[in-house]
Design the sequence.
């Protein structure tokens, strides 16, 4: 039987507390016994022993602060200011942002208030006392120069996660041009999507495009990764909120619905755990909430894993070596390339040395599903939101699609390379609505970052500090993306041409870290090209078949009232962008669209 997470946490911390209290008590006893100390009342050693741990903490905390100050001074650097708010104020601002706020809002407010680099700590506003001693201080480093240091130039000073190199090396060879340019899977899933969309349009209803796209990306990703689709498109799509009674029981009870529900809930819980840091077991004290969700997902993945492993064993027994071309799923690739070394024993038997743990294989696949599904779904959902907001852009995109691909055929890799406006459009969506709006890295040794502003000192970051950076805020800054043009804010204007005209040379080329939706440096997204292909494929198909995208404002969740006082972009939002690990639209994106008649093209 497994212990609940809360007890594991307490038992894990208990020895340190017990050791300090017990040794203090014994020490006092010996000192009294040897008459080094006068005899104390019997309760006194007990009280001192109980207080031993907090006292050690405070002493450690002050010692660390003092040591950091000295180290900063020795480097000619400065320590960033702490966000000067009470712990309750910090918690309530974060909770309010999760409930009603705009992604990246808290960070923006804090960095504006205190200068660009700030520190915050849930346990104290003034950094006088800290319950944990490592990775508890978070620092916001929102300057492109700092992001460059964190992701690239000082990459080795930040934690990479256990076995990161191994995982990357194992997965990377799979993303060859040939594999990521095979659009057969998309063709099948597009046909299903098209049928669902057409039926719903004929019934006179709007469509939750976010839901439809997420079914497309999930089915494509599971087929690409595991060799079998979850089949979420075959469940159908939901009716708008006002017609919820039209959803059939078979829609709710479809096996894929269970998988999707477990997957989505798991992502939200994982984001909550990340926010809580190492203290998450205190919130899930008696019950680990993610494990049962993982079991639901395992019901789908386990049989596929077993099949792949059995096939590999059979191939080995038959002396068949896998051909690269045959490995069209990532699972087959991982099984073939991580099964350890094959040796022939003296008795002629084949033996595997260091076979890879199937659990690790499964984790790898689920990680890739997280990395690959919701990100592309986000890109496509916000792309369609922008089509609804900018009909002129829809026309230009269709023009390019018809010029390069034609009105009916699916796109090919070579054609995609020529679709410059489509790529610029996708980049502009990624700029204003980056699927991973914020990210973080933790220092493994002290780091000195360049000054945030001219004339300021470099910034000293102690060891074990979690550095947050909000890509979404960097992507929207006027000082980085251009000043006002015809009285509107250029950085907050949706304008794909900025990735095509002289603004590329002016802003992006000299300062590439102002745009990093896929991260940068040695840990840059492995699926970047895959994602561009998938999104381009979907856009081509969508614009070959549909036009006149308009938002169904009776079904979309309206943005909170307070957003009206935000910047120009936030104030003009018609839907509610929010985020767990990745961005999405709360309540979905309900859109009406018309079938495209050939002569309209
Ligand atoms: C628009 C779509 C996508 C965006 C914006 C995106 C963004 C990112 C970002 C920001 C990271 C860095 C995360 C971190 O290290 O903290 C990342 C990593 C990664 N992504 Fe993507 N991604 C997208 C699509 C995909 C797809 C489709 C796949 C695979 C099928 C994929 C596979 C990966 C992998 C394997 C990593 C880990 C790389 C490493 O740690 O070395 N991504 N992605």
Sequence:
């Amino acid at each position: 039987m497994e212990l609940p997470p809360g007890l594991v946490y307490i038992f894990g911390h208990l020895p340190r507390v017990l050791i300090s209290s017990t040794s203090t008590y014994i020490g006092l006893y010996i000192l009294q016994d040897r008459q080094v100390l006068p005899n104390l009342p019997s309760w006194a050693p007990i009280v001192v022993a109980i207080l031993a741990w907090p006292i050690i903490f405070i002493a450690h905390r002050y010692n660390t602060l003092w040591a950091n100050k000295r180290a900063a001074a020795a480097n000619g650097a400065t320590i960033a200011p702490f966000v000067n708010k009470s712990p309750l104020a910090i918690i309530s601002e974060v909770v309010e942002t999760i409930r009603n706020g705009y992604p990246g809002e808290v960070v923006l407010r804090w960095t504006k208030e205190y200068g660009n680099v700030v520190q915050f700590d849930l346990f104290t506003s003034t950094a006088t006392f800290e319950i944990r001693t490592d990775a508890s201080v978070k620092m916001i480093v929102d300057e492109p120069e700092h992001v460059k240091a964190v992701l690239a130039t000082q990459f080795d000073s930040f934690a990479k996660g256990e076995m990161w190199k191994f995982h990357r090396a194992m997965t990377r060879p799979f993303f060859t041009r040939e594999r990521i340019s095979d659009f057969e899977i998309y063709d099948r899933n597009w046909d299903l999507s098209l049928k669902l969309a057409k039926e719903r349009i004929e019934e006179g209803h709007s469509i939750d495009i976010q839901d439809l796209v997420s079914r497309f990306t999930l089915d494509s990703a599971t087929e690409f990764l595991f060799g079998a689709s979850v089949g979420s498109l075959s469940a159908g799509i939901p009716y708008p909120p006002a017609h919820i009674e039209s959803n059939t029981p078979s829609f709710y009870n479809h096996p894929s619905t269970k998988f999707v529900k477990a997957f989505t809930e798991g992502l939200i819980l994982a984001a909550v755990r990340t926010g809580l840091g190492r203290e998450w077991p205190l919130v899930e004290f008696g019950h680990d909430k993610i494990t049962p969700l993982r079991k639901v997902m395992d019901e789908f993945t386990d049989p596929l894993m077993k099949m792949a492993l059995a096939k590999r064993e059979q191939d080995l027994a038959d002396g068949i070596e896998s051909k690269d071309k045959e490995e069209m799923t990532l699972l087959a690739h991982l099984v073939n390339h991580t099964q350890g070394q094959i040796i022939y024993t003296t008795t002629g038997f084949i033996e595997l040395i260091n076979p890879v743990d199937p659990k690790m294989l499964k984790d790898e696949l689920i990680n890739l599903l997280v990395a690959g599904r919701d990100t592309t779904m986000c890109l496509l959902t916000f792309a369609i939101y922008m089509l609804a907001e900018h009909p002129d852009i829809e026309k230009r995109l269709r023009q390019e699609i018809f010029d390069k691909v034609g009105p009916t055929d699916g796109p090919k890799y070579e054609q995609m390379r020529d679709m410059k406006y489509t790529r610029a459009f996708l980049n502009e969506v990624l700029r204003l609505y980056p699927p991973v709006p914020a990210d973080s890295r933790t220092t493994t040794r002290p780091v000195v970052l360049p000054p945030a502003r001219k004339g300021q000192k470099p910034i000293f970051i102690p060891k074990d500090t979690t550095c947050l950076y909000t890509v979404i805020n960097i992507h929207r800054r006027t000082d980085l993306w251009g000043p006002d043009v015809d009285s509107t804010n250029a950085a907050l204007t949706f304008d794909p041409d900025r990735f095509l005209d002289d603004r590329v040379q002016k802003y992006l080329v000299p300062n590439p870290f102002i745009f990093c939706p896929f991260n940068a440096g040695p840990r840059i997204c492995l699926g970047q090209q895959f994602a561009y292909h998938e999104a381009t494929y979907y856009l081509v198909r969508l614009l070959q078949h549909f036009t006149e995208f308009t938002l169904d404002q009776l079904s979309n969740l309206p943005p909170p009232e307070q957003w009206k006082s935000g910047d120009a972009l936030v104030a003009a939002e018609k839907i509610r962008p929010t985020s767990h690990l990745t961005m999405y639209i709360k309540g979905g994106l309900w859109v009406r669209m018309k079938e495209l008649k050939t002569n309209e093209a």
